[in-house]
Amino acid sequence: MTIYGINLILIGINAFIFRLITLNHQSDTKRKKIKKVMIGLITFQLILILAIRDDLIGVDVKVYLDFFESARSTTLSVLLENRFENGYIILNKLISVLFPDNQIFLTIIALICLIPVGVFIYRYSRYPTMSFLLYIAFEYYSFVFSGLRQSIAYAIILTSYTFIRQRKLVSFLLLIFFASLFHRSALIFVFAYFIHTIHLKKITVIALLGLNLLLFILRVPLYTWVSQSFYSSYEVVESAAYNRLIFSTVILIGCFTRYRYAIQYSKHTIGLYNYVILGCSMMMFASVGTNVMRIVDYYYIFIIVLVPEVIYSLKDYKVKVLINYGVMILMLSIYIVFMQVDGFEIVPFRFFWP
């Protein structure tokens, strides 16, 4: 776990240096340049860790590497008969022709998955360091070690957010379709465009609470129907996902206490709230389906910019700083707990060289 600890320390040092430098530069242009460098360095170190890992780090990575190795000697027409989505298959074939090496393959996948995250945080986060910590603490980063196809889909989804803000429906739909070529579950994010501008009122919140209660009661038959209709290999299994649901709900409630203030700074914050709410609502089904969280996170991943937006809306500077550091400490604590469970099998870390 040492390298993951070093990673967090370097992120902290990076943020501290960034803070010191920006204190001496009041120009927005200079601040943006410094911010870009800081985010670039953090993104680079996250990619580097993925690039230098042993090719057995990650619970599902062996399956993906076996497929990549078969892509070297198998024709594309035969590969397209595989259960993987066509976009992922074509990407594997292309990389296998240009760079037929497992380590280079993992590095390219890391670049594809992490660069869009860095760009997203640069464009839309009030506090980039906190966004990276949220991204790491909620195990989105850990997931990249294992879920290669869906991590690519998540990266494309984050990119599509720009078109939601610009209200460019065709461009948005094209990106969602493109994401589905790597993991078909990405199609679930289509609803994001249409709920982005829905302003939540008291009656709407009450209706949502009632709907969520009904969904929780009916979660078993509803999940059974969906899984049998679309994913026959996914069984109904009682899981211990309540802790994640409770924790995520508490964070959402905390964000809601600043709802009318946060949306004053940006109308797009309304959409961030709506995505996270929908994510929490779907999270209830995680108690009966072990793979539901993969669907949930298409929406809940936007928590990494919602929390900084909410904290930014605080007027008292001292309170803002206190909560900022409090949230960071909380995220670090959560990350340590998740790493002890190690569901993605990334501990202990091993380098790819002997």
Describe this structure in words.
The protein has 354 residues and is mainly α. The chain has a domain at 197-313. Helix content is 73%, strand content 0%. It is built from 19 helices and no strands. Helix 1 (2-23) packs antiparallel against helix 2. The longest helix is centred in the last third of the chain and has 25 residues, at 317-341. It is globular, with a radius of gyration of 21 Å.
Order of helices and strands: HHHHHHHHHHHHHHHHHHH
Task: Choose one word for the global shape.
Answer: globular
Look at the helices and sheets and give the structural class: mainly alpha
Radius of gyration: 21 Å
Mean pLDDT: 88
Subunit arrangement of the protein: single chain
Strand content is: under 5%
N- and C-termini, Cα separation:
18 Å
Strand runs, count: 0
Q: Which ranges are low-confidence, i.e. pLDDT below 50, for 5 or more consecutive residues?
A: 232-240
Give a brief rundown of this model:
This is EpsG family protein. This protein is mainly alpha-helical and 354 residues long.
List keywords for this structure.
mainly alpha, 73% helix, 354 residues, 19 helices
List the helices and strands and how they pair.
Elements: H1 2-23, H2 28-51, H3 61-73, H4 76-79, H5 86-98, H6 102-124, H7 128-137, H8 140-144, H9 148-165, H10 169-180, H11 191-195, H12 202-217, H13 219-230, H14 242-256, H15 259-265, H16 269-283, H17 292-300, H18 303-312, H19 317-341
Protein name: EpsG family protein
Keywords: Membrane, Transmembrane, Transmembrane helix
InterPro entries: EpsG-like
